[in-house]
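fyi for ur records
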Amino acid sequence: MESRPLPALERSISSIGIGTWQLGTDWGEVTPADAEATLQAAVDAGVTFIDTADVYGDGRSERLVGAFVRARPEAGLTVATKMGRRAEQTYESYNRDSFLAWNDRSRQNLGVETIDLVQLHCPPSEVIEAQRTWDWLDEMVAEGRVRAYGVSVETCAQALEAMRRPACASVQIILNILRRKPLEEVLPAALATGTAIIARVPLASGLLSGRYREDTVFAASDHRSYNRDGSAFDVGETFSGVPYEVGVAAARELTALARELGPEGASPAQVALRWVIDQPGVTTVIPGARNAAQARANAEAGSLPPLSADLEAALAELYERLIREHVHTRW
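which gave:
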């Protein structure tokens, strides 16, 4: 597994990490034993970066991750969490007292005094633009609550605003074959500023695995059922905001392209992950996994060769033909 620098932490992390939204409750139930096995498979395959959030299962994911990491101090794991989505999404909700309370809760859930990386969890743009936000985060570093901080964003404009702050260690943003806008300005800016880019939703909520059909039914507790219209949170987080049927059609074409032009034996999901880490400026990508087999397969994408120019061109054409018209300009 290739490692890439995360400068603010003065360490490197695996180019493929693991996201743990699935270990909460928004993707159907995952038992603690399955969660541990999934994380162990990822680590055994070379993953050293784990991303979680206080809102995943209302702390369940943080607690599972924390217990796993504490039991393996020799593994050299880096844990990032996120805060802010447990409150009403207003400028006023993001105040100093809330920052401290959210951080206290995450430190308790993770079982640590100092969190490696804390990220504001897709806050309103006004929060990212406010100087007070960054002052409070600086205070948290100075007090030893966190080692570094960043922001998870919904839009490229928010990412660019965050990267104006010299101490912003990382920006987490949706990036995948169906969501290419960050290639235009965000990744070049990250290279210029040295900001780490954490790419999330790399498989478009599983669409790019090629496993789903138009008639696939998801559990009622799965956000892929209840958030297709964005009624629970930003619709871009579910299937990258692409209408489900359109995404299924695109995934079907990806499967054919992976077979024809991809590295030998690579699955569509592995091709999709390899595409993300091939993009200059990406530090790590955080696919989720609900079982050990998925975690191993995701990590194996890190050992694939870079995708061919022919496959890159075919994927770009696929995006232009099927997807671009469905991508909100605000993203």
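The beta strands are 3-6, 11-14, 18-19, 49-51, 78-83, 115-121, 146-152, 168-174, 196-200, 284-285. thats all i got for now
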